[in-house]
Design a protein that fits this description.
- The complex is a heterodimer of chains A (about 120) and B (about 120).
- Helix content of chain A is about 0%, strand content about 55%.
- Chain A has about 120 residues and is an all-beta fold.
- The model of chain A has no long low-confidence stretch (mean pLDDT about 90).
- In chain B, strands 2, 5, 6, 10, 11 and 12 form a 6-stranded mixed beta sheet that branches. Chain B has a 4-stranded antiparallel beta sheet with strand order 3-9-8-7, with no helix packed on it.
- The relative contact order of chain B is 0.34.
- Chain B is globular, with a radius of gyration of 14 Å.
- Chain B has about 120 residues and is mainly β.
- Chain B is built from no helices and 12 strands.
């Protein structure tokens, strides 16, 4: 089984609709991230969370909200979807860097979202 | 400003040959991590290799090695004995450890095509 799962894998929705993307992980990591990828570009950070009570905005948080329901679950919501939110969305997890640690981020398979 | 530059939008390599994907980075931080990820056409982001800024030896992971030249701020990925399955997008990324988010800053990627 995959360590980081995302649902749904694909979603088509209409402008103005509310949509939730879910992420679950079995790696036991404390840190979770949401990124989006636009065609031909690298990933950009939307939100991140270092534990259940910690939520932080990333560089492109406008139009998005998140919920950390448990250590293993981190959801991303689009309250009122718009076409320029059409993108590939990734969830990632990592462990805090320890002495000599790497804080490598491991990604879920992605959710391809299309907003019409 | 923190930035990753990948100057090769696309590259070809013959199967079984070695290939080098270029990556330069810009940061004023002394402590950072450098990563390479592979993104096949299916879309997932696969972690390949990590190099810490204080690591004196170049990282290696199987057929992947990272040619780290700190003074030149470069972190090139070398893939030895290319295989058809290596055809994918490759992203160089950096985590400046002074950034409290520990977010990954991505380059724009290099598309590698392995010819049989």
């Amino acid at each position: 089984d995959a360590d980081v799962t995302q649902t749904p894998r694909n979603r088509i929705t209409k402008t103005g609709k509310r949509i939730m993307l879910e992420c679950s992980q079995t790696k036991g990591h404390d840190r979770m991230y949401w990124y989006r990828q636009d065609p031909g570009l690298g990933l950009r950070l939307i939100y991140y969370s270092f534990d259940v009570k910690d939520i932080n905005k990333g560089e492109i948080s406008d139009g998005y909200s998140v919920s950390r329901q448990a250590q293993a679950k981190f959801s991303l919501s689009l309250e009122s979807a718009i076409p320029n939110q059409t993108a590939l969305y990734f969830c990632a997890t990592s462990d805090p860097p320890r002495t000599g640690g790497t804080d490598t981020q491991y990604f879920g398979p992605g959710t391809r979202l299309t907003v019409l | 400003a923190q930035k990753i530059t990948q100057t090769q939008p696309g590259m070809f390599v013959q199967e079984k040959e070695a290939v080098t994907l270029d990556c330069t980075y810009d940061t004023s931080d002394q402590s950072y991590g450098l990563f390479w990820y592979k993104q096949p056409s299916s879309g997932e982001m696969i972690f390949l290799i990590y190099q810490g800024s204080y690591d004196e030896q170049n990282a290696t992971e199987g057929r992947y090695s990272l040619n780290f030249q700190k003074a030149r701020k470069s972190a090139n990925l070398v893939i030895s004995a290319s295989q058809l399955g290596d055809s994918a997008m490759y992203f160089c990324a950096m985590t400046p450890w002074m950034d409290s988010s520990y977010k990954l800053i991505f380059g724009s990627g290099t598309r590698l095509l392995v010819r049989p």
